[in-house]
Amino acid sequence: MHDDRGSLIISIVQQRRCVVVHVEDNGIGITPEYLPFVFQRFWRADKARSPQTKGLGLGLAIAQTIVHQHGGKTTVCSTLGIGSCFQVYLPIT
């Protein structure tokens, strides 16, 4: 369960020949064994598989596809109870 006290930090930095977008939250985090699957189409964590939870499990898959089409990459790291950080690396052309 998530409440309204959460926060989201978005930062953009230039590293060598790419721009890196960091999106970090202080939510519930992602279980380590789930991390390899978060960018797969239609995948949702077990807790998210309820009629009350909105979404189809497509957002991260679509984002990753767009990033890859621009020659970039996406990564994620997460700690249960602390939050998650997603990174988008886009080449500077």
Automatic annotation (TrEMBL):
InterPro entries cross-referenced by the UniProt entry: HATPase_C_sf (IPR036890), HATPase_dom (IPR003594), His_kinase_dom (IPR005467), Sensor_HK_Regulatory (IPR050736), Sig_transdc_His_kin-like_C (IPR004358)
GO molecular function: protein histidine kinase activity
EC number(s) stated in the UniProt entry for this protein: 2.7.13.3
Keyword Cell membrane: no
Tree of life domain: Bacteria
Biological processes annotated in GO: phosphorelay signal transduction system
Catalytic reaction(s) noted: ATP + protein L-histidine = ADP + protein N-phospho-L-histidine
Kinase keyword on record: yes
Keywords, sorted A to Z: Kinase, Transferase, Two-component regulatory system
One Pfam assignment: HATPase_c
PROSITE patterns: HIS_KIN
Domain Histidine kinase: 1-93
EC class: transferase
Protein name as catalogued: histidine kinase
Organism of this sequence: Gloeocapsopsis dulcis AAB1 = 1H9
